[in-house]
């Protein structure tokens, strides 16, 4: 009697927790299941405990069945197979398939990168004192994080990337001087959720602050991150380097990477093509723009505004606006095929500005909170009060 009771308790515990673990961290599970963010956050924080308790239940079930003959064999072997899948798939997917390169990314010369990246491909760029790094969407799609000990001209900067949002952000992976051990765990709202393994706290990619700290707490320092064509990058930074995610020398990891890349490529291609999100875990809809419109979002203090490239071009390539009580210039450079945002500390609007920030109002520095070329539905999910295409002054200086 006791053995039978332990068998069924172990079976229920292992499968119940396994289902929760797979649902919340299985990633592909969200193509068919609606996952609540609060549930996902709980599993991210306590992943080890969930797995330990669930596998302990499986061990109890196995001991009761094999040692005491409790429970039917069909139920045992079915539960054992399901347990292996429910725990094994998320763990392998997250911890091996999505293993990041936060500390070990390799950057190559433009000449080498030309063998792997099309000239027209969009790349995400971070730069300091003329030292520039480019990251293509395809190369970042699986690892999600790229950085190394060399840093960006001596600064610790990691490129973080969410393929579901089409968003790359350069961050200093530190909060209040404490270094973070970032890991990719999940996505919600079509935006990556990282975990700081030092504190076990989730970090929403687009925000950069730990969940427990909240919006008013400390956050990672964002770096000016912008998109441009690869050919534009070559013109602007001929000595720049490019991140390449070359195949692993381990044959098992190489096989896993091939499978992971194939799954990602199919899903992300559909994400760019279809109006509805591939993983529809959004909490709101905003019909002001089509979901998959690429926007350039800027958030300063409590203010948020986004721009479409077509609108910037229609305004003559230069838009002046006030965001968060500060003056900002948004411009598209046709030579380097890039949209940038710059702080304007002068008393007059800028009527001309180039890719490097040289304007008729002096040299302007880039806005570090620019989110370049992400999907509208993701920007609107996390900044629901956003304005679209705000113009305070036209390029000619007249009130628009």
Topology:
Elements: H1 2-25, H2 37-45, H3 47-68, H4 73-97, E1 107-109, H5 110-113, E2 122-128, E3 131-136, H6 137-140, E4 145-146, E5 158-162, E6 167-172, E7 174-175, E8 178-179, E9 182-188, E10 191-196, E11 201-204, E12 221-223, E13 226-229, H7 230-236, E14 241-243, H8 251-273, E15 294-300, E16 303-307, H9 309-314, E17 318-323, E18 326-333, E19 338-343, E20 358-359, E21 362-363, E22 371-375, H10 376-382, E23 387-388
Parallel strand pairs: 3-14, 16-23
Antiparallel strand pairs: 1-14, 2-3, 2-13, 4-5, 5-6, 6-12, 7-8, 9-10, 10-11, 15-16, 15-22, 17-18, 18-19, 20-21
Helix pairs in contact: 1-2, 1-3, 1-4, 3-4
Total domain units: 3
Unreliable residue stretches:
393-400
The count of DSSP E runs of length 2 or more, i.e. the number of strands, is 23
How is the largest sheet built, in terms of strand order?
1-14-3-2-13
Structural class: alpha+beta
Q: What form results from the Cα inertia axes?
A: elongated
From the alpha carbons, calculate the radius of gyration and give it in angstroms. 24 Å
Main sheet makeup: 5 strands, mixed
Bin the strand percentage.
25-35%
| Whole-number mean pLDDT | 94
Helix content: 25-40%
How many angstroms separate the termini? 81 Å
Number of helices, counting only DSSP H or I runs of 4 residues or more: 10
